[in-house]
Structure formats: C-alpha cells, structure tokens
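Figure S7 source data.
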Amino acid sequence: MATQPIPRFPDGFLWGVSTSAHQIEGAARLREPSVWDVFTAEPGRVKDGSTAAVACDHYHRYREDVALLADLGVDAYRFSVSWPRVNSPGGLDFYDRLVDELCAAGVRPVPTLFHWDLPAGLDWLERDTASRFARYVTRVADRLGDRVVRWITLNEPAEHTLLGHALGTHAPGRTLLFDALPAAHHQLLAHGLAVRALRAAGAAEIGIANSHGPTWPASDDPADREAADFYDLLLNRLFSDPLLTGRYPEGIAELMPGDARRVDADLEIIAEPLDWYGVNYYAPARVGAPQGAKTVFGGLTLPAELPFSVRAIEGRPVTDFGWPVVPEGLTELLTGLRDRYGDRLPPVVITENGCSYEGLDDRDRIAYLDGHVRALHGAVAAGVDVRGYFVWSLLDNFEWAEGYARRFGLVHVDFATLERTPKASYAWFREVLRAQRAPVG
Ligand code: FCB
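Tokens for the predicted beta-D-fucopyranose complex:
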C-alpha cells in the first residue's frame, strides 16, 4: 500500500527498528532466569498462559533476522542485552556475534542495557541493585564498546515501576502503589551510575528510552485538571525532571522514602549529561478525577484508591490492544518536552513507536506509522531537534502479560514453525527509507 510521499527528514536522520531480549530471544535454558521467567511460571499471570522460553528463537536465528534488517534498509537496530544471559557462561559471546553480524550488514547496533528482564533474585527495591547494574554495564561495554557507539541505559522505568511494582500486572508482580517509588528511584540511580560506567569505558553516545505521552484532562473541571496533572507527574515528569534538571518534580520529592540528603546526592548522579534522549510514544491519555476501579485501555484495571481515573479517548480508531491512534499526540509531546526543558533537552530519538494489529496485509499499521512519521516531521518543522525514529517492532513477539496475542511486528512470526514473513508494512517502510535517501531534486 503506497502512501503520499513523506516529507524529507534532516540529513543523517537515523531510521531503525526495535526489539528486546526477553521478547524475542528464547533459548531460556541457556541463561539464568529473570524475574519474567518467575512471573510467567505463576498461573494466570500471562493471558494466553504462554512463556518466552522459545519466543522467536532469535538466539538461534539472529542471522536470518539481521538479513531481514539489511533487506529492510534500516540504519540502526535497537535490541536489548539480557543481564541474566550475560551472567551465564557464553552469554556475552551471543551479543558479540550479533554485533558482528550487524556491523557486517551495515546496520548500526543500538543496545539497551535493561529492558525489564532483571536477574531473578535481584530487586529494584534494593538500592544495591543500582551498583550491580553499573558493574554489569561495564562488562558489556568492555566487550562491545569497540563496535557500539550508541547506548541506551534503561527502557521505560515508568512502566516497569507502574506495571511491575505498583499494579502488579508485569513482573515482579508487586502491588505496592505509591510504595513502589523506591523502585523508580533505584532505576534512575542505576541509569546515572551506568552513564558514568559507560563514559569510563569510552562510550560516546549515551541515551535512555523513556515512555512519554501527552496527558489530556477529561474536562476543565478543577478536579479533573488536578487529577490529570498528578497522572502526568507520575508517568512523565517523575522520570524526565530528575534526568534533565537534577530535581524531582514538586509533589514527588515528599513521597520519596528515606534520607532527603541521600536522595539529593543521588540526583547529581541521575542528572549526568546525556548525548540524546529516547522517547517511546504510543498514545496520549485522557485523565480525570477518580471514578472507582475501572478497566482502561489494554485491559488494565486501575485500583479505586488512585487519585485519578483514565478515560476513553472518543472518536479515534483503536489498535487491537485498544490503544487510541493519535498521531498528533507525538508532535504535542515533543514540542511540550522542548518547551518544558529548553536547552536541557538533548537531541531526541524516537526509540519506540508502533501498534498491534493482526494480519499480513496490515494497512492499519501502515496508516498508524505513516501518520506518526508525519507528526514527527511536524515536530522537526516546529524546531524540535529530532535525530531518529525506531519502529516497535521488527518481529511479532512475546508481548509481556499479553503473551503472543498482540502482534506489533513488521514481520509476522508463526510461533508454531518460527517462520518469518514480512508484512505489507515492512514493504511500506522499506519504500519510505528508499525515498528518504533518494537524491534531492
Ligand atoms: C513498550 C515496551 C515494549 C513493548 C511495547 C509494545 O512499553 O517497551 O517492550 O512491549 O511497549
């Protein structure tokens, strides 16, 4: 399906696709378990009862997957390094082979060092996990740093805190609500220590992948506005403020447990300068005053005691996951980040954007991506320094608590045979990339 030509992005703009280790690698027996293996073994945690033991078997089929990347024509591939695998004999060798294969194919490797698969037995509520993370990062950087230029410390500490520690729908399955905040603080501290470790190992281009989305108040009613502001604080500013300004937003510092002086000293580490800032964007949220327990998009039920409720965004198409399709939310989000942080905002890279739809002739996905790439161009035209765009995801994969029921890939995976079949959206994206590189005029 062809679409109207997409406006030209600046020279050197980085086009890529993203995946994560736990969602695609499989070969679970060749590594230590992670908190996700423990979680999925508990009945009822994953909707279709599946596990990621085999997933896409990327561990054994990475050559085929790198060939798909090369054929697609992306500049870069964002994948994640599994900490439990690195802890296991021969684990780092796998990433060594993968990085070699990518370099040989002319695709730049962009590893994420933590994408939710914490080694089983470790815990983000423990401060010490942050220093352990930094030591693991040093090992990875020492091994891959001769070929990897661009690094991502963490993926979405906001979702990992909210879903994994506050609501319990993701591993490790805790339902601590606001008592989950130390898990956020320790991930941020781990990020800062990792930035220092990467610099010490000679890394040049360091970023993070944070989830962000505009928060729209359900109405002008002050109760709705206040609730929306608090939601925005928790999901957006709780993470970007300390990273980019060295301070927690007002209303959060007070909720952080422990010694305030220690938190202040940590904030200096957390705010280590970044070379670029990764944004994962899927959809905005419409938020109002509490309405009791309600199921929101993605089948998530928010407990009644939260001081906000998430409402439906009417009049928009929704993906198979039930997420509303709002491309202009991306422009709004990026101009908003620029306005809030000004010069403190490093160049931005969209590290994830995508949607779940069934089928090989995935016109809905093409429409989604087309709309979002145009909205991204709108942000560039509005003066936001955006340097790259990564589609989530290369392959259909293990979508966490949804199991294999949500298909986000440009490439279809038959989970019985593990056969890969490029979808219509893969061909569309390849054409977009070709057109972006065609000589001007
Ligand atoms: C993001 C995660 C990614 C994937 C997409 C759909 O929140 O980072 O692993 O699950 O959502």
